[in-house]
Amino acid sequence: MAEVTATNTGAPRTTGVHHDAGEPRHSVPGHPGAGPNPAPKGAGVDLSALKADFPLLERNVHGRRVVYLDSASSSQRPQCVLDAMDAYYRTTHANVHRGVYAMAEEADRLFEEARVAVGRFVGATDPAHEVVFTKNATESVNLVAATWGRANLHPGDAVLLTDMEHHANIVPWLMLAEERDLELRWMGVDDGYRLDLSELDRLVDGVKLVACTTMSNVLGTVTPFARIAEAAHRAGAVVLADGAQSVPHLPTDVGALGCDFLAFSAHKMLGPTGIGVLWGRRELLEAMPPFLGGGGMIRDVRHDGFTANVLPWKFEAGTPPIAEAVGLGAAVSYLEKVGLDAVHAHEVELTAYAQRVLAERFGDDLHIFGPAGTEDRGGVLSLAYRDVHPHDLAQVLDQAGVCVRAGHHCAKPLMRHLGVNATARASLYLYNDRSDVDALADALAEAGSLFG
Amino acid sequence: MSGLEDLYREIILDHYRSPRNRGELDSPPARRVEGFNPLCGDEVVVYVQVEEGTVRDIRFAGQGCSISQSSASLMSSAVKGKSVAEVRDLIRTFKAMMSVHEARLGDGDSARAANGSAPDDGDAVPVDPDALGELAALQGVVKFPVRIKCATLSWNTLAQGLDEAEEGAAPVS
Fold first, then answer.
1. ipTM strictly over 0.85?
2. What angle do CA A311, A312, A313 make, to 5 degrees?
3. Is the CB of B40 less than 8 angstroms away from the CB of A450?
4. Which domains does chain A have, with CATH numbers?
5. Tens-digit pLDDT profile for residues B62-87
6. How far apart are CA A230 and CA A221, in angstroms?
7. DSSP alpha helices (H): ranges in A153-247?
8. Is B4 in contact with A422 (Cβ distance < 8 A)?
């Protein structure tokens, strides 16, 4: 694994002055699974007690305990994140960047503290300037396409994508390719559900941009991003990482990844919806034109033009998601207290357990679209069960309280490669435990008897 | 699991496992119409052959969930040999059975149904279960609003095919 964080120094941050938000009830230090073998039972990192921090997971669905296995789509939030946002609205809210009164200054400070905390979380060396708040990871990619892309990509220029990308890291480039007459190249996926690097040097030759996911939202595959970035940089290309799937689950260091841009969303990492992050290398961000126009992103406005604000506000037009930033800051604080190494180790153990249990109970009736084993793999399990349509499977699972996603997962080029219209996807996070996997297996068995 | 029993009735599972009229027809003379449900990636291709105002033959192809596939199969059995007018009545009745919930989902078709601007999609049609026969087995779908589009996919596609067939037949050629 290329991503090794060395940046989580100092005391974990809390969201501010209001209260002692979010001490996880159990904070277990751990080490990442170093190899393909899962930690033996009892020796792995057990985070299952963390489930109690997540109030939503106490609810019932159809009279059954909810079993939430859709975190690759959106995670749930711990109480401390809810408390931080609630406390912000109850005690502090004012618009940022404008007020001179005490409360506005407090809001400003909380907002900027969250920015720095999020930047440090991914290893940013200059988080106060390099972290731009957006609406979500999708908007982060669109920002790069609309600003860096329009300024730097010209007819005939080539962009390299991969067959593993989410639509969020495809469609912005398709749109720009249409506008600018760009050449799009695609790195394929091999039979082991990994990126086919055999043509890497040829594919990066002459490209201006490589935009690649760090982890597939369908297969769970952790991509060899650092290797791809190195080849891309040798070829003179700029490199964008879609970190939406890996940042919540793996220690992340933008320096070790070797990316120039990193996009991710708060709502997949225990934070609120409505806020995402674009990290970018400062010199690139400095040179880029602004994205959306409006208040906050300007230094001066005249009849005949405007002067853009400095980083990072140049890219943040209008009132930003302030409470959401506070919530994201609390989520980052929570994740740091648990430790991303521990989160990853927990998911490795649980993924191995799921692979074993599903294989034992269903054998060849069940196929997992994703790498065998747990090496360079996250806890995303895309399932095909006999010939039961994923939509039917998800419906039966729902009746058992088991929440999985059925469909193309916003990755249609990958689905075409896999030769299926849809899969049923179960995805794991730090609050899941073996009982959730058991509930999934039980519900699959029920589906089997119904559609037998 | 009582809700599921409403959804996956035996007739539905039977048509899913052993679909009727699955296949293709030569086009022309048959009309070939494609329908898609982007929600789940389901796709259906309906081949409908209209002669002298009657649905002489119908086939369907494509892939999808048990609801979309069984609905297409049940539909094909129900409409074959009926007059176009009778089939349009049936489409209206079937969609009325689904319409309360579908109107809330707000796609183009259901928006038209809600507005009442398209005569085929009138929403005031009383549902007569006897008129639906085996199709009434699909009424459990309305308890699962996201699945309604699965059930109506082939019907909307057939309606489009009938429209095209009539447009194509109108000019003397």
1. no
2. 100
3. no
4. 48-65+340-451 (3.90.1150.10), 84-336 (3.40.640.10)
5. 888 999 999 999 999 999 999 999 99
6. 19
7. 171-180, 200-204, 225-234
8. no
